[in-house]
């Protein structure tokens, strides 16, 4: 199962909505970006790391230990009220319910895609990781 399918399935379970996994995948694509139906984990991690207070949280997701929580309010700050509202509308739930579900699923998504803390494959290999690192300097 690829990352988009996994995330869509987890969100469908969390939301309990009548939205299909296809609808949820489409909504996730709009929220998280990426091309060709893939989620751009490298871009998400880069965005999280650029927001100082979220850096420690995302580090816990990348490591092999427990995952620190991200709040629904931080989801709104990260993606913006408009994008979360669009996501919620596409899957047929309220904005707060959507943000709560995303705050639960996002750590799991990144954790599962970063075996041993490595994002080499989702970040585009070593070159992609270097491009991501350049954004911090």
Describe the fold and architecture.
By secondary structure, this protein is an all-alpha fold. 68% of the residues lie in helices and 0% in strands. The protein has 8 helices and no strands. The longest helix has 18 residues, at 95-112. It is globular and about 35 Å long.
* Main sheet record: none
Strand content: under 5%
Q: Would you count the extended β strands for me?
A: 0
- The coarse overall form would be globular
Task: Determine the number of helices (DSSP H or I, runs of at least 4 residues).
Answer: 8
| H/E series | HHHHHHHH
Broad structural category? mainly alpha
How far the N terminus sits from the C terminus, by CA atoms, comes to 35 Å
List low-pLDDT spans. Answer: 120-130, 132-137
Task: Calculate the mean pLDDT score and round it.
Answer: 78
């Amino acid at each position: 199962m690829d990352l988009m399918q996994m995330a869509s399935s987890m969100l469908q379970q969390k939301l309990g909505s009548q939205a299909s996994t296809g609808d949820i995948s489409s909504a996730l694509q709009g929220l998280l970006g990426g091309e060709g139906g893939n989620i751009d984990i490298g871009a998400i991690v880069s965005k999280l790391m650029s927001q100082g207070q979220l850096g420690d949280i995302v580090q816990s997701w990348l490591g092999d230990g427990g995952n620190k929580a991200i709040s629904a309010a931080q989801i709104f700050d990260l993606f913006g009220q408009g994008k979360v509202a669009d996501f919620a509308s596409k899957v047929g739930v309220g904005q707060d319910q959507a943000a709560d579900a995303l705050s639960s699923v996002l750590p799991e998504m990144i954790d599962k895609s970063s075996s041993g803390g490595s994002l080499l494959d989702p970040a585009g290999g070593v070159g992609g990781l270097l491009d991501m690192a350049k954004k911090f300097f």
